[in-house]
Specification:
Blueprint: H1 3-58, H2 65-98, E1 113-116, E2 120-123, E3 128-132, E4 135-140, H3 145-150, E5 158-161, E6 164-171
Helix pairs in contact: 1-2
Length: 172
């Protein structure tokens, strides 16, 4: 191989690595946004649980015993609901920490960024739409219908989404 060809081949490798580094950086930014959302949910649930507990504890027993018991029961229900939300957010946060964000995927699966001609998806948790690096990203649960439709597909494949033909441009 001539010296010029070696240099050209090396430049291609560097370009590919930079592109992969950018993809990994983008994926890490998405995951960081997910962490922030989940940490906020955890803080809100903890605060709500504390307030519900304080409210239930502060109810004074009155001559209207049923009113007291009803208020305490409602406070306990509120605390239980917030405890469930806290548990779910903690479970989701643990899940997001386990995602292989430095891995580039060729097939859509959990932890994949899927670029289409219409949307950018991240398959991990259904947390809505975020903005990462100036791009809107739809955060999908793996059990969401569109995520199930995408799972196993490769770049270049097409699928029908809301009656619109959509093409997968890239996966990582």
């Amino acid at each position: 191989m001539a010296s010029g060809q070696k240099l050209e081949a090396r430049q291609k490798i560097i370009f590919i690595e930079l592109k992969e580094a950018e993809k990994i950086s983008f994926k890490k930014n998405i995951v960081q946004s997910c962490r922030i959302i989940l940490e906020k949910r955890i803080a809100v649930a903890q605060q709500a649980m504390q307030q519900a507990q304080e409210s239930a504890n502060s109810e004074e027993k009155s001559s209207a015993g049923d009113k007291y018991e009803t208020a305490r029961a409602m406070g306990q229900q509120s605390r239980d609901m917030n405890a469930k939300q806290l548990e779910e957010a903690n479970r989701d946060l643990a899940f997001i920490h386990l995602l292989p964000v430095s891995k580039i995927f060729n097939v859509v699966q959990n932890g994949s960024v899927v670029i289409t001609n219409h949307f950018t998806f991240f398959i991990a948790l259904g947390l809505g739409i975020i903005e990462a690096d100036g791009k809107k990203v739809v955060l999908l649960s793996p059990s969401a219908p569109v995520a199930r439709m995408l799972t196993g597909k490769k770049a270049g494949e097409q699928f029908l989404f809301n009656g619109v033909k959509t093409k997968i441009i890239d996966i990582y």
